[in-house]
């Protein structure tokens, strides 16, 4: 009998150890906040069943305008197997937004807030900018109290300094710093020993358009400086129509690229935000009025398996291509949300998989807009990363609410 009890205790211990391991895993990898469709209960698509139950009174918050309408915030306890508490989270119950997935290319023009330092160079024997503490990626806001908006502004102030120390105010991440830069004379002109950039232009893919407030989301990642790889601080930006002229096919070790040019100088909208989740702003008109609206899919609803992307590789407009969602990372600290793989034979034969410029291509699963393509794998161009669509939608919601508040 004692042997039986020992075996039972051993098995029970193993089960409990495994259970505690699962609780720890889900507690770490599941996010602390969720969007939930009105009339639905919070649950998470996972290998093991994750449901929830309210653990606090609901609080109703009125949201002015927007397709989300009035929202309800609730404290919930996530439950493993419907019985084992995992962690307390917050959810926002809302009307599921209806969006137009786009999948068409758009031109991006950005003017930076200040100018970004992209290179440090020697003047005579050393770089005055580097010597005073300035780094590549710093954003110069003003010199001697004078705001700078272009590389011409910087050059003019430095040339007129007569070698006197200049007070340079910069932004470095969230820090606001000031340095004393001493220009040096070279070839009859005073120089700072740095190259700066004040604008950028490129091609991306529109992810969605929200007809409720005229906002859009695109790219799924920030527009970064080509040299520093840092997100460009936005002062102003516009979007425009693009004519695709072709593409370089992707192959292992060398991702291809969409090629195109601005159709004209006319602006079709404004970029109001350039951040880790993409570029966001307003459009003058619906870019895909004949397309079908899709409901927004929330991250906890996504599951591994078949899906589609909408993307354009020529001027015939966006087409659907089959993909597989291979990995989903719900963790708030995840560097990438999704791993996808192109399975569509037509796209693989034509492009070799994902092309640079397809970033922002909407991902559709189970009749919902669930994400957007963001990056291509260098060594396997059939694969790439994606971002959750609800993350991108939250940025357009913030823009809409901010516009309403400012108008009020």
From TrEMBL:
Domain Peptidase S55: 173-408
Molecular function (Gene Ontology), one example: serine-type endopeptidase activity
Any Pfam family: Peptidase_S55
Name of the gene this protein is made from: spoIVB
Lineage of origin: Bacteria, Bacillati, Bacillota, Clostridia, Eubacteriales
Name assigned to this protein: SpoIVB peptidase
Similarity annotation: Belongs to the peptidase S1C family.
Biological source species: Hominimerdicola aceti
Classification via SUPFAM superfamilies: PDZ domain-like, Trypsin-like serine proteases
E.C. number(s) listed in UniProt: 3.4.21.116
Keyword Methyltransferase: no
Record's keyword terms, sorted: Hydrolase
NCBIfam families reported in the protein's UniProt record: spore_IV_B (TIGR02860)
PDZ domain ranges (all copies): 103-164
An individual GO BP term: proteolysis
Superkingdom to which the source organism belongs: Bacteria
The keyword Nuclease is assigned to this record: no
């Amino acid at each position: 009998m004692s042997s039986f009890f020992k075996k039972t205790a051993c098995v029970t211990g193993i089960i409990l150890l495994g259970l505690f391991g699962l609780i720890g895993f889900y507690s770490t990898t599941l996010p602390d906040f969720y969007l939930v469709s009105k009339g639905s209960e919070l649950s998470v698509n996972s290998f093991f069943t994750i449901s929830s139950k309210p653990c606090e009174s609901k609080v109703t918050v009125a949201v002015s305008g927007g397709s989300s309408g009035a929202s309800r915030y609730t404290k919930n306890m996530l439950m493993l197997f419907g019985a084992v508490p995992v962690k307390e989270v917050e959810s926002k119950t809302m009307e599921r937004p209806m969006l137009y997935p786009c999948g068409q290319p758009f031109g991006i023009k950005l003017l930076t807030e200040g100018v970004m330092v992209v290179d440090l160079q020697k003047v005579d024997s050393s770089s005055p900018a580097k010597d005073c503490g300035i780094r590549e990626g710093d954003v110069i806001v003003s010199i001697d109290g004078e705001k700078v908006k272009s590389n011409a502004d910087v050059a003019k102030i430095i040339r007129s300094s007569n070698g006197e120390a200049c007070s340079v105010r910069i932004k470095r991440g969230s820090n606001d710093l000031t340095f004393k830069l001493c220009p040096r004379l070279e070839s009859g002109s005073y120089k700072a020993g740095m190259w700066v950039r004040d604008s950028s232009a490129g091609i991306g893919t529109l992810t969605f358009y929200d007809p409720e407030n005229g906002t859009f989301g695109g790219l799924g990642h920030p527009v970064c400086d080509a040299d520093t790889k840092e997100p460009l601080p936005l002062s102003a930006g516009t979007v425009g129509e693009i004519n695709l002229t072709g593409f370089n096919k992707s192959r292992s070790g060398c991702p291809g690229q969409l090629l195109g040019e601005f159709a004209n100088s006319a602006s079709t909208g404004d970029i109001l935000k350039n951040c880790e989740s993409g570029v966001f702003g307003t459009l003058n008109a619906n870019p895909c009025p004949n397309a079908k609206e899709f409901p927004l899919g929330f991250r906890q609803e996504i599951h591994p398996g078949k899906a589609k992307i909408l993307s354009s590789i020529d001027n015939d407009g966006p087409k659907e291509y089959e993909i597989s969602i291979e990995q989903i990372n719900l963790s708030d600290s995840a560097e990438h949300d999704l791993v996808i793989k192109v399975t569509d034979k037509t796209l693989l034969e034509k492009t070799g998989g994902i092309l640079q410029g397809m970033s922002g291509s909407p991902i559709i699963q189970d009749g919902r807009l669930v994400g957007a393509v963001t990056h291509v794998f260098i060594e396997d161009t059939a694969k790439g990363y994606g971002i959750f669509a609800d993350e991108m939608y939250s940025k357009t919601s913030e823009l809409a609410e901010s516009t309403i508040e400012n108008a009020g």
